[in-house]
Amino acid sequence: MADGNAGEIVIHQLDARALPQRRARGSAEAVDARLLRTIAAALPADMPPVSALGVEIAFEAMADATKAAIAADLDCFVAWCAKERRAAFPADPEDLVRYLRHLEAQGKKPATLSRRMATLASAHRLVGIGEKDGLPTDHPMVRNALRANRRRKGAVQRQAAPLRFGGALDEHGEVKGFTITALLDACGGDVQGLRDAALLSVGYDAGLRVSELTAAGVEHLEPQADGSGLLSIPRSKTDQEGQGSWAWLSAETMRRVHAWLIQSGIENGPLFRRVGIDRRRSRAAVPPQPYHSIPGNTRHWQERLLGTPATQAQVTYTIGETSLTRQGVCAIYRRVAMAAADAGIVEMSGTNLFDAIAALSTHSLRVGLTQDLFAAGEDGAGIALTLRWSSPATALRYGRKLAVRSNAASRVLSAVRR
Predict the structure, then answer these.
(1) Quick check: helix, strand or coil at residue 23?
(2) How many whole angstroms separate alpha carbon 204 and alpha carbon 293?
């Protein structure tokens, strides 16, 4: 497509290797090897033989993300043990309490301390420790240390900044700052902007985790007669066995998805991919230069002799073949948020702006939809089922304040206490 003013726009679908590459994260085999290496280095010399088949089966039952998290947490504990000259396996309950105090002194949150103990419990089970005498992480001393930490620090976890819908759903006028409506308004009409708008719209409507969003494929979309759509989710964090589930997509979202697919030329495979952009400025024509006026040491003297024609500005979009990464999705949210602020769609500046953008994460769309559903009066059980939360309590954690408007007291007393 050519435009006399804007220049030429070219869209290429190339192998992802044609794009600038980030260092690939470890494959499943690399994560397994790292975890095994950490455990093997920490085991005492007199440790009884460990069942290789048992470890292999345990690894097969874990998600790659779980193994990576265990490896990272275990590396931290093993390093502390080496510094303090303590034995990592089997861990002594008193050493675990000292380790917890070390983590608390570093400013770690209660949730982090609990996760570290759960990681160590898993690592001990992997090598067969605790089957007879119980796990050291279950010792009353360790449990009391965790309980004492929660009493001192409080158990409230920091939440991802929500990206709520705003606009028509904001009847109370309480949604401030960045909203889905504002970010969609900030998306441009080029290939990248169409991709960003479809990504935001799908992520919000379906309340997707970032792993579900990056795993979405064209073949997972099922358009409906009324213009809406269904999105198949083959596997999720709470569905490791792959029973699958479905999410609803609005007609607006489906229009945005179709616009992105048509413009990008994607027909199958990952739905959301990297978009490489190559912008070249226009150049004026350079007339031929007489031979005698060209210095003898000039490079590319043939071009000067013949001259060069004028060239138009050109923007080339290169669509990758692989799906976006978690980091790529987060970067898109923050870039579009900054564009919304720059365009004056969201009135925010200075430190407040940068703090608000930094608070956005890959969980923001899911949290935003959860809060919007609570604000609309939906109950926690229905929200948990719709958004595939592990329990209503998990969903309620993100909408505790908004859920008050539709609880038993508000429903009964609102008619008589005016």
Answers:
(1) coil
(2) 64
Encoded tokens for 309: 């024609």
Distance CA 302, CA 394 (A): 70
**Is residue 103 in some structural domain?**
yes
The residue type at 399: G
- Annotate 319-343 with DSSP letters as a single string: EEEEEPPHHHHHHHHHHHHHHHHHT
SS3 of 217, please? strand
Range of the domain at 220: 167-262+324-406
Q: Which of 98, 103, 125 is nearest to 113 (CA)?
A: 103
Per residue in 291-323, pLDDT (tens digit) is 777 776 666 677 777 777 777 777 787 888 899
pLDDT tens digits, one per residue of 356-376: 888 898 889 988 898 888 888
> What CATH number did the domain enclosing 218 receive?
1.10.443.10
Instruction: Give me the pLDDT at residue 247, please.
Output: 92
This prediction has a pTM of 0.67
Encoded tokens for 341: 């602020």
Residues 357 and 389 in one domain: yes
353: which 2 tokens?
A: 């702006």
Asked if the model's pLDDT at residue 172 lies above 70, the reply is no
